[in-house]
Design brief:
The chain is mostly helical. It has one domain: Arp2/3 complex 21 kDa subunit ARPC3, CATH 1.10.1760.20. The protein has a two-stranded antiparallel sheet with strand order 1-2. Strand 1 and strand 2 form a beta hairpin. Helix 1 packs antiparallel against helix 2, helix 2 packs antiparallel against helix 3 and helix 2 runs parallel beside helix 5. The longest helix is centred in the last third of the chain and has 29 residues. The relative contact order is 0.14.
Length: 198
Amino acid sequence: MDEVAIPHMRVLAIWAGTFAGLMMMLVGGLFPSAIIIPGLTIPPKVLDLPSTLQVPALLLCSLVCGPRSGVMASIAYLTIGLFYFPAFHGGGNLEYIGSPGFGYLTAFLPAAWVSGRLSRNADSNDLIYLTLCALAGLIVIHLWGGAYLIIGSIGSDWSETLPELLYKYSIGPFPAQLLLCPGVGIISLGLKRALFIE
């Protein structure tokens, strides 16, 4: 293959991953998450989770397409939600910056970078390792968002107390999002193998 074409193909892959990640986050924010409970009943039992598929979509993009695509998709998602379309859970526009949940959205940037960088290591085709990469991104989201809540509650006029906010934005959704991390690992492993990504 021509050595000049390789950088162009890499750039094309990054932009394609960015677009795919953005679309997954936009669509994932519209759907509540759920898991299927194994059993002998037809149809199978489905357990609804108190979360959307937005965070798993971000983690999946970062694991499969890499940190650059994950960060660029996050920037595009934040831009669309703040300026063009109410894409966030509670709506959108510039007023959303003052809301308690905005810290969790800005946490998408470091979470995409951390999970994407970790997924580029030698063990990147191991299911357990990919699941742990997704878990690392999820932990970054909740630590960053929790820090935003702590700092924001000091000088803000939010109606809820800090413990209520931490429960609403971190403690409540975290177990459901944690349950989705193995699914992110399984899907990312399948996609990486199907797309011949090492």
